[in-house]
Amino acid sequence: MEEDRTSIYIQHQRWGIAHQLFWRGGGNVEPQRKISCDVTIIGAGPAGLASAWFLQQLGYDVLVLENEPTIGGATRTEAWNNVLLPCGATYFAEPPDTFRELLNALQLTPVPLPDDALWLSGTPYRNFWHDSVLSELPIPEVERAAFRRFRTDIESLPPFPFPLPDVLPDPWRALAAQPAEAVVNTYTSPTLRSLLNAYARSVLGAPLKDISAACLYDFYRAELAWQFLRPRYSLRGGLASLCQRLAEHIGSERILLQCLAFRIEHVSNTCVRTLGITARGESIAIESGAAVFAGPKLIAKHLIPELPPAQQQAILRLQYIPYLTVHLVTPFRLVPEDTFGLWLPEAQLVTDIADTTPLHPQPVEGFLSCLYVPLSRWQRKLLLEEESIRSLATAAVREVLQLLAPEWASNISELACFAWGHALIIPTPIALLGAAQQARRPVGHIVFANTDNEASPAIENAIEQAARAAEIVHALLHSHSTAPLVRRLIQTYPLMPCSHAHPLQPVDRTVTNSRTATSTSLAPL
């Protein structure tokens, strides 16, 4: 593939104004307009939108601020050449009760996904964890035995405690304290190690040496779903369908896009003020009874000046990594038929490919593939320059095609990519054994709801943390309330009427405080 002949569509997170405010000393901004609501929510990903929906069901007036031009967070989609690209997360494991009931309430039906395949020595092996396929892998018998032993070890573990408790019980606590590399090396299989290292980099954000063995074991149970009769799932239209449906019920007038929150502070014991900058550069101040921060905590130290020193130190111990997703449409399959993902342990840049064609809401001409290109923390600066992104994307596609379809290596004329600067939290031993638990503690009426509360990146975690945040906020604002818990609301409260307004564009509406019956006009953002 000749680089100068390839048209590359590049999108990335909106980072310019955040860098100016947080890292270049531009944070002293006076508000030009004031707004009031019951609860302010920062972040319109799955956790933020689910928090907003839960709180609305409890009768609270919510306002969601999102720095990006679209909703979705890690489930974000982008339109390109008449197709929708799932730029981040694409699937979930067996949903916990809260998540399952939310999907039911929103009338979203999970779509079971097929198993993955493993690419070894020029051949794809579907369902490679099955004994019949393991016996065909081009590896020594001692390595096949290592695969079986790893599979048995995962099956023998008790369920991982969910949500993440303040103190992990054994045997998970002992596993959490160990780097995954040390545990995987005991199986003495180079092939298994290469596979699990690719998996760790793709799904958990870092190589085996940096992640906790407990999280590797827990997450990989989902990859062996057929063993436990629990398939993986997605949604028609991708996981962004969940955020889309939540936004429709919340109402587009309650979601301010391209509005960066840059300071969250208490003005009294019962009032939180959130300062933001709109797409037009207007500064706004939102006063509310509580705030839910549903973004990555790495920026919390810049937003929340009241963070206790111990909590600041815990947040500093959390690590986040950048990555790139590269998308292309081909007239042939890169991923084998009846397979969702293809793992490439022999590749250097790309860890795996997902066939996202079945997730598309309409038929696609050709086959849509998503390549995952994880990066180290030290490579984050590469995503600040489009030329660097272009080079990475081109090299990733070239690597994959030379492995899977060499004859096409110079025949791809168009591709798209999305650059994530601070996307995945790394489940390090430090994070699981105290840092995440310390970092997620509420600060007065400021509550956290994000997957990094769990120290692991999964949409299941996002929904659970959204429910927990809503329950905490409700307890803060109605300490003597006898209203049902949020988890019961999904079954007992009627759905809010759907808003037919499109939630993906900046809005010009009136924000009404449902408790004080006052309203503040929102000028165009």
Strand content: 15-25%
Give the class from helix and strand content and strand pairing: alpha/beta
Q: Going across the major beta sheet, what is the strand order? A: 1-20-16-19-18-17-8-9
For the CA atoms, what is the radius of gyration?
23 Å
Please tally the helical runs, counting DSSP H or I stretches of 4 or more residues: 17
Biggest β-sheet strands, sense, barrel: 8 strands, mixed
Spatial separation of the terminal alpha carbons: 42 Å
Model description:
By secondary structure, the chain is an alpha/beta fold. It is built from 17 helices and 23 strands. It has an eight-stranded mixed beta sheet with strand order 1-20-16-19-18-17-8-9. Helix 2 runs parallel beside helix 16. It is globular, with a radius of gyration of 23 Å. The two termini are 42 Å apart.
